[in-house]
Amino acid sequence: MAASKPVEASAGGSGGGGASGLPRWQLALAVGAPLLLGAGALYFWGRRRRRRASGASERKTPEGRASPGPSDPSAAAQPNGPGGDEMSPLDRAQAAKNKGNKYFKAGKYEQAIQCYTEAIGLCPSEKNADLSTFYQNRAAAYEQLQKWKEVAQDCTKAVELNPRYVKALFRRAKAHEKLDNKKECLEDVTAVCILEGFQNQQSMLLADKVLKLLGKEKAKEKYKNREPLMPSPQFIKSYFSSFTDDIISQPLLRGEKSDEDKDKEGEASVVKENCGYLKAKKYMEEENYDKIISECTKEIEAKGKYMAEALLLRATFYLLIGNANAAKPDLNQVIGMEEANVKLRANALIKRGSMYMQQQQPVLSTQDFNMAADIDPQNADVYHHRGQLKILLDQVEEAVEDFDECIRLRPDSALAQAQKCFALYRQAYTGSNSLQVQAAMKGFEDVIKKFPRCAEGYALYAQALTDQQQFGKADEMYDKCIDLEPDNATTYVHKGLLQLQWKQDLDKGLELISKAIEIDNKCDFAYETMGTIEVQRGNLDKAIEMFNKAINLAKSEMEMAHLYSLCDAAYAQTEVAKKYGLKPPTL
Length: 587
Known about the structure:
mainly alpha, 67% helix, membrane, mitochondrion outer membrane
């Protein structure tokens, strides 16, 4: 697919990356991809210890057991019955509560509310614990009647009396969810998660749900109004390196050179007019990427000789700056040009298919890749990128078939061979097949031996070695990758994460991730990872700063939503710390 080293991040998440027994820095290896939005909150809040199954129980019933008595709620002990004058105000309140519990159990919620209200009125004001229980019980009855505003109000009173009252906080969180108060819901459920030690799956799932909703809501608004941002030259070169049959990314041919360049060489001018596309290609060779879209536009408006190429190149850079809405019409036009070079049309289909996948439209994405294979069956790029799509869809066997076809068409495709090994490894790893894991690891050795200049081979092998806890060898592979591509910031991030997982060396890990930012200050993955580590260190304000930097660099709305989820989770923890003095464990 048309992304910078997409399998590296996405496939890394297919092997149970959400397992709560793993440290978050290990999980971070699998969370960099925009296509793993759902893992965001659970990964962010995952703790080293496993969740206890008992923590998933529903919180529906009121607190306190009714006193033994007749099955008819009305026959329960009456505050003013025989001996009632001898009962203390608290005893009378407890009796009213017990009566309310019987009504609640019988499904008579209005009567239960009356009893709990009576208990609240009778209870001495200094009895905070009892009063908070009565309010929480009344909130439980209101909840059954779906009176969410009253639920929230009573839970608020319960929490004011008992700030660490888990049942009241969680019930209020659910009421806020129903009232569409997402921020308040998140703060309450964050407090619950911390108080429960991140052990209750029910609370974790609500947190994940509201974080997703908040993230999507904020990303939709932000992405719509964002300023276009050109990625770093490193990212752009990495993107184009994933294509071998892409005409627009090839160097200028002698016959395509501009008039000025040809005059310098003393050649006759072939292109008489001022050609916008050829200027764009020259700017591309010079890495002067900001001028490419405008020059392509000139070619398109002039309906020049290279109109199809200009449309595809402009669409590609629209995608790179995150403007899919502008890219789509250009891609559609190229795809519909039956007279155009078939490789241009196939490339447009690959890029539109990748765009659809990024927008979580896998059916449309698959259709585009299949159409590309139909119109240009000898195009190795189609099978290479479709193989990556199949990995994202957990269709590993089909992915391997596509990589094999890519390799058949281009035996020198080191990238396809490395990614095929990684697909086979993930399949074996997730299936717990030790023999197949060994075979896949040997496959990696064969690939790096055959293609010693393929940085991707070392990087993917390093991830597999990390899974196998062969940390020393993984570190060596990252070093080889850095030797080959010293300006690849992502490799420094992965190596930094490895130091944390392997040696718990926080200083070295942060040093390497800082180096990644120094190399590429537009590396959103580096900022995201730095933010995640700062959360673990308890530096929430710093974490929020890092997440916001990553948000501003996000290359898709879905990636931005994922980053907002992380940022909102950190912000919620700061609010909970202020209100209740609660903080999760830190490094």
